[in-house]
Amino acid sequence: MSLPPGFLDELRNRVPLSQVVGRKVTWDLRKSNQGRGDFWAPCPFHQEKSASFHVDDRKGFYYCFGCHAKGDAIGFVKETENVGFMEAVEILAREAGMTMPARDPRAAEKADRRSQLAEAMEEAVKFYRLQLRTGAASAARDYLVRRRLSNEGQERFGIGFAPDGRQALFQALTGKGIAAELLVEAGLCARPEDGGAPYDRFRNRIIFPIRDARGRAISLGGRAMDPAARAKYLNGPETPLFDKGRNLYNIGPAREAAGKGQPLVVAEGYMDVIALSEAGFGATVAPLGTAVTEDQLRLMWRIHSEPVIALDGDAAGLRAALRVVDLALPLLEAGQGLRFAVLPPGLDPDDLIRSEGAAAMARVIEGAQPMVSLLWRRETEGQIFDSPERRAALDKRLRAAVQRIADPTIRRHYGDELNRLRMDLFGSATPRRAFHRGGRREAGAGMQVSVARNSLLARAASEAAEEQLQEAVLLAALVTHPGLVARFEAGIEAVDFLGEGHRQVWRSLMRHALPGVEVRDLRARIAAEAGEGLEKLLSESHLRIAPGAREGDEDDLAEQCVREALAKKAARIAARREIEEALEDINGLPDESLTWRIDQINRARFDAARGPAQAGPEVIIAPNGVELNRDEVEYMKKSFDQIDFSRGGRTRHR
């Protein structure tokens, strides 16, 4: 859906950013100057006590000096309400009293259908709440009493009861005029294989409504009252409203509590979440009947930088924790991790709170272990390392785990910590960087490896600056000519942009550069999501003369610009990766001539990505005068077949 020109500007003018943000924060009145539109508060996106979150009401942007979150009113609603761009616009438009432009009929029909499903779900919640008060629910009420769940808690979580009748809900809701197909599509009822009348999916179960971050009921969970039931817990199926892997139980209240400084605790199920919340740990969530997914991890990190995974202290709990560790390793970033709170054996959070009180649970959470501790525990617990072969096998496993970490800084710190733990275990240290990508295995190799690395990275600063300039030209060309995004989509998605500002613009560009989108509308959407990133990008002075990145340039010129920028970026990425892997594969004392040769090849590769293409000779003489023979040329071509290695420096035939 395209918004008319000026709509977003009018929206931002009508709804001050301070009004939007003010619903989620408490302003620091001593630090704020409301008359000048200058507001400060503790950040709603991460745990803090000081007021480092700044809102500039005149410019319409917010920025946190702690976690670096930034954006405008639309971006703030997206982040805090967990909605998409258009939904955020609609929320603000309603607040501003503005009428949304007419939508595409098909999109409007889909949105209306979702609204109908949500209404049917809310009617089901009301029905089950009433059933909990009936005589048929006496056993369910007794169970809730044994679990020490008060009436207020039952009301807060909307707990209900599904009677044992085959069509109790179906008859009640169809009697209110809700279509049978709507109940089936919402996952409340199921249709038998013989094509008969739909029947209730939940029967003789305590009902737990599952709500999204905005508080809308999107599905149900049910605990069986019959010990012989096939499944003790049952969740609703995947529907247009409900995606198990992209939602968390109690997400809305947990986000609000985490914004007030509570740690985010991830429990196993509904009753654990409820017990923890009732004991004062309001920022508690749980996955929905599945193992934690990547989307759920990212959702947790949007609420808190370091969620605490609460685990049962048995073998099954440890296995579940290690699955989360393996999932999280490639996703780690600076300031974004996980901790693991291991409960006493045989106790879940509810058991611990009932037996020893909330203070005992607080101690478990405060003593949560970092991920690296669980990784070490998995590889060493119950094993004997009484031979060089067993110790080498341990080193290999640890190295493989650390290499899965994408962030180089975190990878380095994991290597340092694992080396420390290894020294504690064996009484002597593996050489520093043993578990780092590209690290050495022998202490005697340290000096030569250091020399090799220094020579490889001597020009890193200037090359990084040049690379960022190339990225800026690439992004500017795509923003100005969005039709090129689909043509070069695979190459663009493979780019690892250096700066966070460039990454924000790239993520927004890939979402909104749809066929037929207007450049002005696209820029408005990117600006709404990337904050000042787009404005800073387009204001760069070198873009005023860069071909293909200026308005008015022909599409074929822009296409040539994008193609060249992607080729250069691919060359740099491939060269860096190859050098790291080559250094890592060197065992023992490295051959000095080999590391020198890698250095020369690497320089030639970087130079190869710069100049115009020429005929491909058999011999390359790099700018430093080093000859590369045919074998080296062929090796490089096989490794990087998208690059013409005949470019750069002088060339001659032997």
TrEMBL record:
Keyword Iron set for record: no
Molecular functions per Gene Ontology: DNA binding; DNA-directed RNA polymerase activity; zinc ion binding
Highest taxon of source: Bacteria
Cofactor names: Zn(2+)
Keyword Metal-binding: yes
GO biological process: DNA replication, synthesis of primer
Keyword entries, A-Z: DNA replication, DNA-binding, DNA-directed RNA polymerase, Magnesium, Metal-binding, Nucleotidyltransferase, Primosome, Transcription, Transferase, Zinc, Zinc-finger
Cofactor: record remark: Binds 1 zinc ion per monomer.
Positions of the Toprim domain: 262-346
Zinc-finger ranges (CHC2-type): 43-67
InterPro entries: DNA_primase_core_N_sf (IPR037068), DNA_primase_DnaG (IPR006295), DNA_primase_Znf_CHC2 (IPR036977), DnaG_bac (IPR030846), DNAG_N (IPR013264), DnaG_primase (IPR050219), TOPRIM_DnaG_bac (IPR034151), TOPRIM_dom (IPR006171)
EC identifiers of the protein: 2.7.7.101
Cellular component aspect of the GO annotation: cytoplasm; DNA-directed RNA polymerase complex; primosome complex
Enzyme class: transferase
Catalysed reaction equations from the record: ssDNA + n NTP = ssDNA/pppN(pN)n-1 hybrid + (n-1) diphosphate
SMART domains according to UniProt: TOPRIM, ZnF_CHCC
Subunit-level organization: Monomer. Interacts with DnaB.
Record function comment: RNA polymerase that catalyzes the synthesis of short RNA molecules used as primers for DNA polymerase during DNA replication.
Annotated family: Belongs to the DnaG primase family.
Domain notes: Contains an N-terminal zinc-binding domain, a central core domain that contains the primase activity, and a C-terminal DnaB-binding domain.
Name by which UniProt lists this protein: DNA primase
Organism: Cereibacter azotoformans
